[in-house]
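Most newcomers find our protein records easier to grasp once they have seen one. A learned vocabulary of local backbone shapes supplies the integers on the structure line. An example says more than a description, so a record of this kind follows:
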Amino acid sequence: MFSVDFKVRDYECDMQGIVNNGVYFNYLEHARHEFLHSKGIDFAELARQQVNLVVVRSELDYKAPLQSGDHFAVTVAYEPISKLRFGFRQQVIRSRDQKVMLEALVIGTAVNARGRPFVPEALSLLS
């Protein structure tokens, strides 16, 4: 399974001393981009070709909070959803004890220059 390692930075935490819930979206997005890059899919190059990958739904289940200084990994697994949508199953796993801190399903599509949704061939080959 693909994963990217991270470390919680102080400014990502809220007044309670835990990672702010919105920061997890950034972790997940970065891991998805790295996953695509590892498969030879350049997110920025697709955009230059007027193929925009967009998120249409995010489901996040927060299991336990990360704190400043925690080391963790974000996993990514591609999952076809339909002819027009694809998904990424992701987890945030704390490194010191392998505890699952968050589970997510992020569903997306691609939009061409005319604004029409489709799944690019490069993504359909991931399944």
